[in-house]
């Protein structure tokens, strides 16, 4: 949900869509520095979340952050920016910050994975009393991006000694693009059996539900509306009814309706359509707000 007009407006947008959980950018995703959020705005945000019963709420880290880089200046800047993301999420009372692990633009995959893990340990060690999690997002595998395999994510977790404040986010578009065939019944079963074996469902904190414009194994991250891409409705039907994932937030990152005033607090027709499709796939329903 957009934070245009202030963080509390994101809560209002989640409410008008009947959501039970939502995601925000706590600062501009394409800038290193974010504005200082006034204390009154923080209080209003937290109060509105509490009053609406929204749980959980997560933020998504800036796309500029790269904890896998071997460039000393970029690494320092990335660590500082991620520290700010964690601190903002802590102040706002969020479950965690979703983070793309990083890209090894120089060096090697192994070095990049070590740098990510070491950076996470440094950030969390400096915030020992905090509760906010860092939630590593599985990626589509474009270029030298890391986190496109369960093995890579498992390695980061092992190197951090399975830190209690690290979790995983799975994106349905990224899964298909990176080569996990969740579109077929056999591929779906095999994907989550492998995830359970290498990482464990208890580490899974968030789903991003997006269809994919590109095919299995394309390694290209292009989101599509639910049921209009190559993931397909059957895969989403299996997912929203899978008892292993009951209660986990399932968040849309599908395209928004264009041309709307940025500060508008009203139902987005495309969001509503995607939500209605997913809710229609749920067996039994929940009789109210649904993830």
Shape: globular
Number of strands: 11
- Low-pLDDT residue intervals, each spanning 5 or more residues: 286-291
By CATH, the superfamily comes out as Divalent-metal-dependent TIM barrel enzymes
Average pLDDT across residues?
A: 96
CA(first)-CA(last) distance: 14 Å
Beta-strand residue fraction? 5-15%
Task: List the keywords.
globular, 7-stranded parallel β-sheet, 291 residues, two-stranded antiparallel ribbon, 9 helices, TIM Barrel, alpha/beta
Summarize the structure.
The protein is α/β, with parallel strands linked by helices and 291 residues long. The chain has one domain: Alpha-Beta Barrel (TIM Barrel).
Write the layout of secondary structure elements.
Elements: H1 7-16, E1 22-24, H2 39-52, E2 57-60, H3 72-92, E3 96-99, E4 102-103, H4 109-125, E5 133-137, E6 145-146, H5 150-159, E7 166-171, H6 172-178, H7 185-198, E8 204-209, E9 211-212, E10 223-224, H8 233-240, E11 250-252, H9 269-281
Parallel strand pairs: 1-2, 2-3, 3-5, 5-7, 7-8, 8-11
Antiparallel strand pairs: 4-6, 9-10
Helix pairs in contact: 1-2, 4-5
Structural account:
The chain is of the alpha/beta class and 291 residues long. It has one domain (7-281): Alpha-Beta Barrel (TIM Barrel), CATH 3.20.20.150. 39% of the residues lie in helices and 13% in strands. It has nine helices and eleven strands. The protein has helices at 7-16, 39-52, 72-92, 109-125, 150-159, 172-178, 185-198, 233-240, 269-281; strands spanning 22-24, 57-60, 96-99, 102-103, 133-137, 145-146, 166-171, 204-209, 211-212, 223-224, 250-252. The strands form three sheets. It has a seven-stranded parallel beta sheet. The protein has a two-stranded antiparallel sheet with strand order 4-6. Helix 4 (109-125) crosses helix 5 (150-159). The protein is globular. 41% of the residues are buried. Mean pLDDT is 96; it is low at 286-291.
